[in-house]
Amino acid sequence: MKINPIIKINQMSKGYPIAGKTFMALKDLTISFKEGEFAGIVGPSGSGKTTLLNIIGSLDKPTEGQAIVLDQNISDLTHSQAAYLRNINIGFIFQVFNLLPVYTVYENVEFALLLQNYSSQERRKAVMESLDWVGLTSHANKKPDKLSGGESQRVAIARAMVKRPKILLADEPTANLDSENAHEILSTMKKLNKELKTTFLFSTHDEKVMDYLERTIHLRDGKIEKDIIKKK
Ligand code: ADP
Ligand code: MG
Asked: Quick one: pLDDT at residue 3?
């Protein structure tokens, strides 16, 4: 059964204190996402994309209004409840790949499972399945410095997906990739979205990403300018 909506933002604002004043990075946003969407927050630098993804990912809290993610109100979560939500149900992919250089590809992906109660056999199965999804099975024993940018980002996707999160948040995931690698990454993510029903939410100002998105939410100065759902 579908949880609907999987993300619900209601009259939400976010302010940052700067020099004794409050700078409003997000202003009165109301928007929701259904399970299984492949959607993107689009807007110029400074429009509030990362702020919005961080709140949805329970890394930060709204100043006003609500963000309800998987039926949990982000404002009400304690530190450890927020960490639990992230550990179990939310995967993150960033512009920088953040791979640990002294560990192998396999270990980098496995790392995401070490905080949880998996047996080593269960970990092995989950890691190898995840590497298979992104086409990197044969690179399992390599160190990150032997990988291309595209391969590194695919390891980051495998690491984010290994817990089978319900939601995957990708903050400008193609910003450090050339066009060919960007397309490869996007097709991989779309495949995972279709096969595993993971909800994908991107932030981007990359045209290549926009072509793949099924919905684009345009932000400007912390406000929603338009919300476009493409016909399939
Ligand atoms: P984007 O990801 O679209 O580039 P951000 O969400 O990072 O936008 O930032 C939105 C606005 O909020 C920017 O003007 C930025 O300078 C400001 N901002 C972001 N994070 C902080 C912070 N921790 N403290 C103060 N201002 C911030
Ligand atoms: Mg940003």
From this structure: 55
The list of the chain residues with pLDDT below 70 reads 1-3, 232
List CB contacts of 108: < 8 A, sequence separation 6 or more.
99, 100, 144, 155, 159
Backbone angles phi, psi at 141, to 5 degrees: -95, 5
pLDDT for 221: 97
Tell me, using a 6 A CB cutoff, whether residue 51 lines ligand 1: yes
pLDDT of res. 4: 75
Task: Reply yes or no: is the peptide bond before residue 165 cis, omega within 30 of 0.
Answer: no
Q: Are 215 and 227 in contact (CB under 8 A)?
A: yes
State how far the Cα of 154 lies from the Cα of 147, in Å rounded to an integer: 10
Within 13 Å of residue 25, how many CA atoms lie on the same side as its CB? 20
- Nearest alpha carbon to residue 168 among 140, 148, 188, 149: 188
* DSSP type of residue 221: T
Mutate to test the pocket of ligand 1, among 16, 41, 52 (most ligand atoms within 8 A of CB): 16
User: How many angstroms is it from 216 CA to the middle of ligand 2?
Assistant: 16
Report the alpha-carbon distance of residue 117 to residue 54 in Å, rounded. Answer: 26
CB of residue 23 inside a 6 A radius of ligand 1: yes
Dihedral pair phi/psi, residue 6, rounded to 5° = -75, -30
